[in-house]
Amino acid sequence: MAGTKSIDPAALEMLEVAQAAGLDTAFDRAERVKPCPIGSEGACCKICFMGPCRLVGKVTEGVCGATLATVAARNFARMVAGGASAHSDHGRDLAFTLIAVAKGEGQGYQIRDVAKLYAVAEYMGIPTTGRTKEEIALDVGTKALEQFGQQRGEIIYTKRATAKRQQRWRELGLMPRGVDREVVETLHRTHEGVDLDPENILDQAMRTALADGWGGSMLATDLSDILFGTPTPLQTKANLGVLKDDEVNIIIHGHEPTLSEMIVVATQDPELIEYAKSKGAKGINLAGICCTSNEILMRHGIPPAGNFLHQELAVMTGAVEAMVVDVQCIMQALASLAQNFHTELITTSPKAKIPGAIHMEFDEHRALDSAKAIVRRAIDNYPNRGKTHIPGFTNDVVAGFSHEYLRYMQGGYYRGSFRPLNDAIIAGRIRGLAGVVGCNNARVPQDEGIINTIRELIRNDVLVVVTGCAAHASGKHGYLSPEMMMNAGPGLREVCEAIGIPPVLHLGSCVDNSRILTVLTQVATEGGVGQDIDEIPAVGICPEYMCEKAIAIGTYAVASGIYTLFGVESPVAASEEVTRLISEGWEKKVGGKLEFYPDWNDIVRKSLEHIDKKRAALGLVEYDPTRYGQSGDLPLAAFFALPPEERNLYSRKAYVQG
Ligand code: MSK
After folding, report:
1. Number of compact structural domains in the chain
2. In this structure, is residue 577 part of a structural domain?
3. What is the bridge-based pairing of β-strands 44-45 and 53-54?
4. Statement to judge: residues 333 and 364 lie in one domain
5. 461 and 364, same structural domain?
6. For ligand 1, what atom is nearest to the CA of residue 329?
7. Is 308 in the pocket of ligand 1 (CB under 6 A)?
8. Cα 655 to Cα 252: distance, rounded to the nearest angstrom
9. 429-483 pLDDT, tens per residue?
């Protein structure tokens, strides 16, 4: 049975360990706990206590008369509001941290990317001349905070969209005013007896999602870059094999980078390393799960131990002294599972406590002290370690492709642009672009949809960017390694060779999906492949979505003009009207549409059809894979014939030329 649960050999090995030990995982619970067939399709209304009303069979309206379409639209909009809240609260906390740092009250932090601070200040209309970076940072943090509570006007970052897109949002009444404002209005409108027009509800869902994508999430990304540095490529390894048998293993898990940044610092503290040695360990090994992992992977090369469905498996290795969690995507089951091992589950956010876990509250004003206390506690736990089982699977990973770096790598510091990428699309070397993002879902085989989709896309010369747990899946299965260019189509392979990149680029965490919006806007602005995002041959894909955040991301992608395809099942399948509204209906309004296809083969087929349709609409040459692929084969083969230690990715171009 384990074989149908995941395509990851490390996961399969650990599931056998779990079975032998009689331990329960999400994989098992997904088999036991059947999804409610009514709720899963959006047909259950539980927003008042005359219900819950289950609109199935001959029951076509609730006690109040709410129709199936209204109920499904309300449920959908509430998912968007939940997801937008999660991303945006994350962004808000980073604004508080930036303010603390600007005031000299953020122990251990500093402003690492001053150039980005200036860029963000410019977006926000904050003067920079003759001012210290702390003065600018204080204004930036304060202005960012205002974006959450802003009641009127337009979220400031929406002006980073193309002029065409901004105009469209204004004409349709979709321009978000403030992050909290849109979330609260969605909750109000979907309260019993308020907005009863499905189309109007779904418009507000788009406006709320835009407040997330072009507001809370984009702010979270930018403020993180200012505080912790804008990512540039670096190499590491991924999967459970990154855990070490002879070192203190600490896993950080969740989404917010504030604490984990300090844990990185604490684990490198010579005093704490000596302390670990005094307990019999050879050192301290930090690894990550989910998006906190992506944050410190992108900036420090800290290896990811896995994605969402790996969190329990990591504990079951018996080799984890502490799993340190912040917010989002943390399974409650970790607490009871950890009791079977010496692992300490440590919660750190006042917003996210778990019964049975140890709570060590994190305060950004004394961040380094908090981090050191946590690391010390993990070290103290090392002598309690029993038998371990670490699966020996890892793969090489190159990560750290911020949109700033993508620009830089196409021309250098002074001549950076998206021109080479656009030219490659125009020439048909690159057929199109795809963002493959999102979660694992225990109801579908782990990583299967993600990896099969990516494999087929790159084979068909589609350049793929990844974030979130889809990025972890890519890393675990070798798709973030430069060698993967050998599996790309001939045109894409030429581009990867010339620039020295893998065909799948890791852009970061879930909030960093905002980087995809920025990249596509820059592609549109560069010219030649459309003037707005909906004209570009590009798709967004979320093959194994699990949570409300994914629905919010999918909705802002669509509202930004992206054809977006989800796997698993549709949460509005019960209503044909809502299914049509979010697909054809949204396409007419905003140029993007949202569709759900449980079979990844359909996702690939529809994606390629869409990309080709957009190419034809732009008058670009028809995609022809036989046209390219001759130029670089020999040097590429010679490059991969070198011993791995001599294959320096970033001297690759020089090697080919030399
Ligand atoms: S962590 S939101 S399971 S991608 Fe961002 Fe993974 Fe989905 Fe959580």
Report:
1. 4
2. no
3. antiparallel
4. yes
5. no
6. 8
7. yes
8. 38
9. 999 999 999 999 999 999 999 999 999 999 999 999 999 999 999 999 999 999 9
Residue owning the nearest CA to atom 8 of ligand 1:
329
Backbone angles phi, psi at 318, to 5 degrees: 75, 5
580: phi then psi, degrees, rounded to nearest 5: -70, -40
Beta bridge partners of 285: 249
My answer on whether 324 and 451 are in the same domain is: no
Say whether 309 sits in a helix, a strand or coil.
helix
Among candidates 160, 232, 627, which has minimal Cα distance to 406? 232
Q: Ligand 1 pocket, 468 CB below 6 A?
A: yes
pLDDT-based confidence at residue 2 (cuts at 50, 70, 90): low
Confidence of residue 499 (pLDDT cuts 50, 70, 90): confident
CA of 239 relative to ligand 1 center, distance in Å: 16
User: With contact defined as beta carbons under 8 Å apart, do 213 and 179 qualify?
Assistant: no
DSSP 8-state assignment for residue 583: I
User: What DSSP line would sit under 254-304, residue for residue?
Assistant: ES-HHHHHHHHHHHT-HHHHHHHHHTT-S-EEEEEEHHHHHHHHHHH-PPE
Q: Which of 85, 298, 312, 329 to mutate to test the pocket of ligand 1 (most atoms within 8 A of CB)?
A: 329
Any ligand 1 atom below 6 A from CB of 546? yes
Q: Is residue 568 lining ligand 1, measured as CB closer than 6 Å? A: no
Integer CA distances (angstroms), 150 to 160, 273, 435, 552, in order: 18, 46, 30, 20
- Residue 468 CA to ligand 1 center (angstroms) comes to 5
Cα gap 155→176, rounded to integer Å? 6
How far apart CA 240 and CA 392 sit, in angstroms, is 7
> Whose C-alpha lies nearest to ligand 1, atom 7?
439
Decide if 658 is inside a domain.
no
> Does residue 539 sit within a domain?
yes
* Ligand 1 close to Cβ of residue 462 (< 6 A): no
- In terms of domains, do 400 and 380 share one? no
Residues 504, 460 share a domain:
yes
Q: Are residues 375 and 460 in the same domain?
A: no
Domain that holds residue 74: 68-228
Cα–Cα nearest to 190, from 72, 356, 54: 72
